[in-house]
Amino acid sequence: MQRSYIRYAKYYRTGRRQVKIGSQTQRSSAISASNAGTILVRGLDLAGQLMGQVSFTDHFWLLLTGGRPSAAQRRILDATLVAIAEHGLVPSVQASRMTLAAAPEALQGAVAAGILGCGSVVLGSSEVAGRFLSEVHERRGAAGSPEDSIAAVIGEYRAQRRAIPGYGHPLHTGADPRAQRLLQIAADCGCAGAFCALARQVEQALPKYLGKSLPLNVSGAIPAVLLDAGFPLLALKGVPILARTAGLIAHLLEEQLRPIGFVMSHAAAAAIDYDGPRPAGFEPDEA
Amino acid sequence: MQRSYIRYAKYYRTGRRQVKIGSQTQRSSAISASNAGTILVRGLDLAGQLMGQVSFTDHFWLLLTGGRPSAAQRRILDATLVAIAEHGLVPSVQASRMTLAAAPEALQGAVAAGILGCGSVVLGSSEVAGRFLSEVHERRGAAGSPEDSIAAVIGEYRAQRRAIPGYGHPLHTGADPRAQRLLQIAADCGCAGAFCALARQVEQALPKYLGKSLPLNVSGAIPAVLLDAGFPLLALKGVPILARTAGLIAHLLEEQLRPIGFVMSHAAAAAIDYDGPRPAGFEPDEA
Amino acid sequence: MQRSYIRYAKYYRTGRRQVKIGSQTQRSSAISASNAGTILVRGLDLAGQLMGQVSFTDHFWLLLTGGRPSAAQRRILDATLVAIAEHGLVPSVQASRMTLAAAPEALQGAVAAGILGCGSVVLGSSEVAGRFLSEVHERRGAAGSPEDSIAAVIGEYRAQRRAIPGYGHPLHTGADPRAQRLLQIAADCGCAGAFCALARQVEQALPKYLGKSLPLNVSGAIPAVLLDAGFPLLALKGVPILARTAGLIAHLLEEQLRPIGFVMSHAAAAAIDYDGPRPAGFEPDEA
Amino acid sequence: MQRSYIRYAKYYRTGRRQVKIGSQTQRSSAISASNAGTILVRGLDLAGQLMGQVSFTDHFWLLLTGGRPSAAQRRILDATLVAIAEHGLVPSVQASRMTLAAAPEALQGAVAAGILGCGSVVLGSSEVAGRFLSEVHERRGAAGSPEDSIAAVIGEYRAQRRAIPGYGHPLHTGADPRAQRLLQIAADCGCAGAFCALARQVEQALPKYLGKSLPLNVSGAIPAVLLDAGFPLLALKGVPILARTAGLIAHLLEEQLRPIGFVMSHAAAAAIDYDGPRPAGFEPDEA
pLDDT tier at A171 (50, 70, 90 boundaries)? Predict the structure, then answer.
């Protein structure tokens, strides 16, 4: 069961995309197969060995890696999914609720509109933060010490005017309570390793480079604890996407019962002025 | 904690959309609130009371209903999510993998493309099946017996040339192993009630109306066990959407490691002939 | 060139979906074919016969129907696309701009989020309005007069508690200037026929059924003028989708130069109160 | 009318994103404003000055730039939109048709699924090709000659293992007929300038760097002719997105009349083998 996980493990670490294993014309998939009576998922009988016996979180880990999670891996994955599922009326939730208000015939369309806001700037930054931590981690050997590899990678980001992903939060300016809690859970599980340590070391080093301190945020803590737990780097963005899908569905249920989509849209439009050309005498309507 | 669940419970049953509670200008949400130090989700402290203590499935139930699931509710929700997360290279997975092959910069876009295929015909039919079962259930009183309400609703569907949702499967023609297993788990949990019974009664009645038997499929069993467990009708489609998101992420991880998006696209194009007009001498390329 | 248009013409009128021409296993497409040197679109050489010689609007008509538009058809299609492309910071535009703010790496994702708001309630109601007009039109024979078929179809809509699509506008309460202008252009072109007449007759009849007058809106006028021009009923929703895509791209260009996505999102969140449970002493942050 | 175009013109050239004009808290938009009787678009009365008088292509240019196109600008924009609207059963079209087959209730969802495949690798590469040409163009001064700036930028791309965008095509290996035709149209219009020249010079230089020739493709020619025509760099990806939306709508009309979504999906699945673990005796179904 762990075979395919082992086979891919080195790619999980390096985060190299589109590696062609074997020839370029490989045409295989190892996730699922079926016949009239049986559905196999990662080699296990879905109805006989999985349904009723594993949690959805276990199943997600199995789908991704081909193996079952340990108790520590399960707890950490659950904690990250719970951490990022919901944070109020953020842009992705607003886009989703406005879309349902306009197109109530397609719940899937409203969920999709919300997921599309899981980007590199908001919500989806776990992926870029994981790549940042991996770059620092990979260069540790060559650079001699974490301090040097941190300095090297931060230097490159700043030269390209890129923000250091995973640090700072507009609301939780002192500390992001979710980040603190994730590191604590990883430590409790005996699962806090090199990536959690690096996440902290970067946090401590940032004032030197930025002139101010920026606390580790939830999108920085998620890759730290997941990479230490052996979660694949190339699937990191899947965690906020899956988690937020749960939050979006809750908002879309509420939108059906107590709609606010058009109220939000009205307020958003009213906040913006028109400053383009207008004919003499034209007065725009108050939105 | 259960207050908001109780308040909405009647709407969960009737499946009425866009009920305006209070005035039309209600402008409230009851899901989440935050300040600099705390994030509340359904009134609970996210970092202090939820992360590390509840599973993602518990959290999904909490987000939807405002309350924590019982052990039976958790087991049934887990089983439905595990049941529908993955079924091989189905259209939604193909759309998603082809989209990532074309646009590797946006994993969220590839997930969204897959979710958009969670429609009324494929994958998302749990919702329409749940509405069908609810219609039969609601009319039981007036009609005097399940047989009569089944006859009445099936008659209306057939008059509108609509398929009876939740029955029949192109591959699992004898029986859908996932449907069988879901009903068994509900019975094991002591949670099989009126909707599970109706799902079976409809299955037995179908040959009389259709001239052939059509076994209950996974999209019919999901609403049966979830409605008996108290899951909100208006969120039923969220179950295949959330579940399939997990499967899509696994496929998108594999697509990065062992790409098949363009291979599938080539085969799909090669299966279709061009039968439009063409100038003399033009020969289309073999796709 | 007109062959395939003629072949499908009867389906355009009836709006029947998923008609299987020939056997159920038909596997052909008539839109495009290529070889190394030539790309055919609807049988014409794309580079040699279309590029540089036809407008994008002509090309859209050709793609849909297999034939070139007349001058009147072109003018009417252009007018509908211009009419519906842009109407300020409406929900679809807000969703799109917020999505780009969160995920600037994928312009296509932001456009998709906007298009998903082209639904049956807002923006995409040209389709449902076209179906309404077609139902009224088809029953005219049987019912003896337009008045009777209007009464019959409105009666059915009201029995199902459905709004009459294509009438009324929250901002343009007196008259929708776009609807007036579209009917005028159709008349100027000599292209105003049965559907334009019906749209007016329904407008005049509505007070009798609704107790108030509701003026024809742009989503009612678009199907009226397009169906009279021979545009396919099953592609009607494509007109607001294509038109709004142009508007979305303009907004996404402006969002890159003068971002307002987060400003709008902040204002929208601030308009909504949290009314869920909270622990003693918790004060939500002002959004 | 040209004022806002002039104001932004320098940003169009440099392609710098998220430029904050004025303070960070600017909250204005210059595209559209309305009151009960009038809709302004870029300062013009939509019903009175645009509908019936301008083509959709003119309107797209106006929406983007705030000004009307010249005859040459219109002809070039039309030619690029016509060039890229349709190229047969490519991945985006397949994703779109499969999505409609699964979810026929939401045409907008099927269009969105197709647009999401307008990525950096396929279909959407006009944007990255435009950035490449702009980089070469901007460095010309410093580098002394086009040859040197071409060498410098190609060197950087190759150092980062990035493909040179806008060159080579899997089917049109000799020459892409659309690219040839676009350059010819630009020359006919008197609109071929520095970017068209650079596109040719890069094509001629490539064999020296790559060891083989790669002809300019349509996604390289589109930015060349549009940038010479004054089209904003940051909206380049909007051209394939808008154009392909027209093609997708034609395919979705055909999918309703002559469905092939499931036929394509079946063929795509059949092309892929399952190579994961399986229990003894399990035989997967032929897809």
Answer: confident
Q: What does pTM read for this prediction? A: 0.93
The reported pLDDT for the residue numbered C146 is: 86
C106 has pLDDT over 50? yes
Q: What are phi and psi of C162, to 5 degrees?
A: -95, 140
Residues in chain B closer than 8 A to C27 (CB atoms):
271-273
Chain D interface includes A170 (CB < 8 A): no
Using the beta-carbon criterion (under 8 Å), do B82 and A50 form an inter-chain contact? yes
Residue of C17, C86, C108 best to disrupt the D interface, most CBs of D under 10 A: C108
List chains touching A (3+ CB pairs under 8 A): B, C, D
Tokens at residue C57, please?
Answer: 């609007």
Q: pLDDT tens digits for A248-278?
A: 999 999 999 999 999 999 999 999 999 999 9
The pairing of strands D273-274 and A28-29 is parallel
Are β-strands C273-274 and B28-29 bridged in parallel, bridged antiparallel, or unpaired?
A: parallel
Residues of chain D with pLDDT under 50: 1-24
Which candidate from D91, D103, D268 shows the least CB-CB separation from B101? D91
pLDDT at C24: 47
Nearest beta carbon to residue D267 from set B102, B110, B268 = B268
Nearest in space to C91 (alpha carbons), one of C244, C259, C220, C235: C244
Amino acid code (one letter) for A4: S
Give the SS3 label for residue A273. strand
Type of residue at B6: I
| Contact status of B283 with chain C (Cβ, < 8 Å) | yes
Share of chain C above pLDDT 70, in %: 90
Task: List, for residues C52-88, the tens digit of each pLDDT value.
Answer: 999 999 999 999 999 999 999 999 999 999 999 999 9
User: Do B59 and A85 lie within an 8 Å CB cutoff?
Assistant: yes
pLDDT of B143 reads 59
Q: Evaluate whether A209 touches A152 at the Cβ level (below 8 Å).
A: no
Tell the burial category of B141 from Cβ atoms under 10 Å away from its Cβ (0-12, 13-18, 19+).
Answer: exposed
Secondary structure (3-state) at B102: helix
Which DSSP category does D70 fall into?
P
Q: Is B258 close to A83, i.e. CB distance below 8 A?
A: no
Q: Is D253 on the interface with B (CB under 8 A)?
A: no
D43/A279 Cβ within 8 A: yes
Share of chain C above pLDDT 90, in %: 82
Q: Is some CB atom of chain D closer than 8 A to the CB atom of A103? A: yes
Smallest Cβ distance to A277: which of D3, D282, D284? Answer: D3
- The count of other CB atoms within 10 Å of the CB of residue B156 is 11
pLDDT digits (tens, 9 = 90+) for D153-199: 999 999 989 999 999 988 888 899 999 999 999 999 999 999 999 99
Closest chain B residue to the Cα of A76, Cα to Cα: B52
Contact B103 D118 (CB under 8 A): yes
Q: Please give the distance of CA B243 from its chain centroid, rounded to a whole number.
A: 8
Inspect the interface and report whether the beta carbons of D11 and C252 lie closer than 8 Å: no
Confidence of residue B285 (pLDDT cuts 50, 70, 90): confident
CA distances from A172 to A44, A203, C205 (A): 43, 15, 58
Q: Kindly tell me the burial class for residue D171, based on how many C-beta atoms sit within 10 Å of its own C-beta (0-12, 13-18, 19 or more).
A: middle
Report the C-alpha dihedral over residues A197, A198, A200, A206, rounded to 10 degrees.
160
Tokens of B31: 């899901």
